[in-house]
Specification:
This protein is an alpha/beta fold.
Length: 668
């Protein structure tokens, strides 16, 4: 409702009616406020009608109608915020003007899938004898072994070395280099930034980019291409940065608002003081090539070494890492998940230098917001008064790291609630006791195994990350990555679009605090579980992968076990054949002899890897397209990857030149 419109309508009334209205406590003014609210809605609708005439500003539901006007071929309507058909419709006329060119095919792939892409004309890379009437000086039959970059890009989308012909079909991904072949390379992973984060300190000279102290490959921050005619280059796609590339193109990759940036004691380390080298481990726990003068960076391992002249330096780093989706917290938009700001807000570090001090101020309800991507260690307990709600959150587009020295005790009085949003938590277990009514985790990572060693191995794989001992507590986990859960049987848990990782398939992902008995009632949707599950009641499991197994002489009766099987349903999910759960509907495997073939395969199952819990391309189609809407099962269901690929194949038929054939290849 517009306050100005209400007053304007009220002023149009004769004074005698306004005087009488005031005498009768204002019923006429209340009526006009209702009318003004409807007029405001009508004005907004009229303004939107004008915006709906343009593809750039129209509402999402109008996009397919504008597409019909220009004859854009219909695609899968994906109900996700990560992809929109708007770009494909907006660029349709530009596609048709340059129909059949590699630049258009590349842009088409980017618009139809939402992934970064590169188109390669493989017939340009065929090793052929020269025809004297049509010389091609750039087409060398054999590569120059002195050109390091040619060899660095070998067998990548940027390969420029000539190859012999392959006669196998490219459409099924078997062959590449032939006269009629076009390759569309896609990057499923995205580059996520971490800005001004304290580097993990090993000693006075050695540091790691990762705030968790594990090796991590640094990724390119993709530069946007300005023209549709431009073919993607390495700087335009999210790919790992190699040592030689960073050394050669340091000016391109290093700097503020670029792929990586390092400050020492608040001051930028200049490019001429940086060396790129291999800092791999050597005998005795040392690193190779320790510098004497310059600062050394290893982008493959994510390591930094300072010269001897920099004792007790404070190092902050800005870099990019690879991951599949907006999950587990990060520098992406989360403001729509925040609690109402009408509550008191205590900010860290503006108002308080330590999180614990801010938490002590909001025991009677409020918000504690961490404003940066810093590292915080002094956190001991969270206490909430009766009927109050506390939200501990990272500010929008920030990812702070909370390092617990011991378990974090969470306690509350009757009807109290706690929300954690956008946090990376490691080092200890969250212990919920007393009468907390609800614990919500949104876009959080509770590191599986509590801590990571330098090579990424979980240090305490058998220790749960969350223990709920209070009865009648409701645990809600959304878009998060968590370790093993221990929930008492009188509590209940709801998990959506998340990963629950007990580190190994035989570990305990969900059970009661004694690791054996049944945990509380469980509702899961679009999740990936790594480890065994034991629950009192599985109310619903939908589009979920349960990657579980039993040890030899295991005391558990089944890898996935529900005590009450007369109630509940498991639908469109994968779980071991021997699982004891409520009735199954369209689950995998359907028959026992199919168990080996349809077993899910992943790019990686180690937290910290860029392909963590991403389904492998070798995974059975029953898993990759086995959800209720033919998307993939598991935590990345809402990426709709099979539908994106289908959209691209449909578009390629329209824009390929006659006689050419295209193949789709996933780089990540």
């Amino acid at each position: 409702m517009s306050f100005g419109l209400e007053e304007k309508l009220y002023e149009l009334l004769p004074s005698v009616y306004r005087i009488r209205d005031v005498e009768q406590s204002g019923p006429l003014k209340e009526l006009l406020s209702v009318i003004a609210e409807q007029v405001a809605l009508l004005e907004e609708d009229l303004a939107q009608l004008y915006d709906d005439q343009f593809i750039e500003t129209c509402a999402q539901w109008v996009v397919p109608y504008i597409g019909d006007l220009i004859g854009a071929r219909g695609l899968h309507a994906l109900t996700t915020t990560t992809f929109s058909r708007r770009a494909q419709v907006a660029n349709t006329l530009a596609y048709r003007r340059r129909k059949g060119t590699a630049a258009v095919l590349e842009q088409l792939a980017r618009d139809a899938t939402g992934w970064d892409a590169r188109a390669v004309e493989f017939f340009q890379l065929l090793a052929t004898t020269q025809y004297m009437n049509h010389l091609r000086p750039a087409n060398h039959y054999a590569p120059d072994l002195r050109e390091w970059e040619l060899l660095e890009r070998l067998n990548t989308p940027f390969d420029k070395i000539a190859h012999t012909a392959e006669v196998r079909r490219i459409a099924v991904g078997r062959g590449k280099y032939n006269i009629r072949n076009i390759g569309i390379f896609l990057w499923r992973l995205h580059s996520y930034s971490l800005t001004e984060s304290p580097a993990f300190k090993i000693d006075n000279r050695r540091f790691l980019f990762s705030p968790l102290g594990n090796n991590i490959p640094l990724y390119t921050f993709p530069e946007t291409e300005d023209k549709i005619t431009h073919l993607a280059e390495p700087i335009n796609v999210p790919m790992p940065i190699s040592r030689r590339v960073l050394d050669k193109y340091l000016n391109t990759y290093y700097g503020e608002h670029k792929s990586l940036f390092v400050r020492i004691d608040g001051k930028e380390i200049p490019k001429d003081k940086i060396s790129i080298c291999n800092l791999s481990d050597t005998s005795g726990g040392k690193w190779a090539h320790m510098p004497k003068k310059n600062c050394s960076i290893d982008p493959v391992l994510g390591r930094i070494v300072l010269p001897k002249s920099s004792p007790n330096a404070k190092l902050t780093v800005s870099f990019h890492y690879g991951f599949s989706a907006d999950m587990g917290g990060g520098e992406y938009g989360r403001s729509n998940t925040f609690a109402e700001d009408s509550q008191s807000v205590e900010q860290v570090p503006s108002d308080h230098t330590e999180i614990q001090d801010a938490l002590d101020q909001v025991k009677a309800g409020g918000i504690v917001e961490i404003e940066d991507s810093g590292r915080y260690e002094k956190i001991f307990s969270i206490e909430i008064a009766a009927g109050k709600h506390i939200e501990l959150r990272a500010a929008d587009k920030q990812r702070p790291c909370l390092v617990l020295q011991n378990e974090l005790k969470i306690s509350g009085e009757d009807d109290s609630r706690l929300t954690l949003n956008g946090l990376l938590i490691s080092g200890g277990t969250l212990l919920v006791s007393d009468k907390l009514r609800e614990l919500t985790l949104r876009h959080c990572t509770l590191v599986p195994g509590l801590k990571l060693s330098t090579d990424g191995t979980p240090q305490q794989p058998d220790v749960p990350i969350l223990v709920v001992e209070s009865a009648n507590t409701k645990v809600v986990i959304e878009h998060s990555i968590v370790g093993g859960l221990r929930i008492v049987d009188e509590a209940q848990t709801r998990i959506t679009d998340s990963i629950v990782d007990a580190v190994t398939e035989t570990g305990v992902a969900y059970a009661s605090p004694d690791n054996e008995s049944a945990g509380g009632k469980l509702y899961v949707e679009n999740c990936t579980f790594i480890g065994k599950v034991h629950t009192v009641l599985m109310e619903l499991a939908s589009n979920t992968i349960f990657l579980s197994d039993l040890k030899k002489d295991d005391s558990w009766k089944a890898p996935v076990l529900a005590e009450r099987r007369q109630i509940g349903c498991v639908r469109f999910s994968y779980l071991p054949w021997s699982s004891q759960v409520p009735r199954r509907y369209r689950c995998q495997p359907e028959k026992e002899h199919q168990a080996t073939r349809v077993r899910p395969q992943f790019t990686s199952l180690r937290y910290g890897d860029e392909g963590y819990c991403q389904l492998s391309l070798r995974c059975a189609s029953e898993i990759r397209q086995g959800a209720d809407d033919e998307a993939e099962m598991g935590a990345f269901h809402d990426l709709y990857q099979p539908q994106r690929e289908t959209n691209l194949r449909v578009c390629l038929d329209e824009y390929l030149r006659f006689g050419l054939e295209a193949g789709i290849f996933y780089v990540t």
